[in-house]
Specification:
about 180 residues
Length: about 180
Amino acid sequence: MSQQRNRPTLTPQFCFNETALRDDSIIQNLNALVTPAQAGFDPSSTAERQTLPVRKRSIDSEACQGFKDNVLFPSWQTRSDVLNYCTGVALDPQDPDLLLREAETAKDRERVVNERLDPYSGRFFPREARTESLANLIRNERGIEGIIRARTWELVTERCGEVGAGWEEALNRWREKKESC
């Protein structure tokens, strides 16, 4: 099974790195649980066409539980922690670009515009604050995260042969179990 990735060091600079915020690899880890050669090679297995694709084959319940407890839920928790931290960064009133934006605004007010020479020069498009941009990104990432978790949980329950709780309930049970240990 794939090793869980190290928890990222949370700094404001990390939050402004969009590539780092969008990184996720749960599906690849799920595929690593299938061990087709577990029972050894059976020559008769090639005598008939296999109608069940690899991605639909059931995974050992112990391997599934280990995957959920050691990879899936810790990864989701880390991702939630990152998004929560970055939400706090986005709400910080100490935006490092504030002085730069204020200077640009003052400079733009003093600008002489000749719209006959450049019809677009009269338009002023103030730059969005980094924190506003980050808040929008985090909002989008939370929405995407919900979709990804729902789809991932659908695949996990399908492959592990489980029926029951949704991903939110399963994650909350894992958190409670983790806190009680």
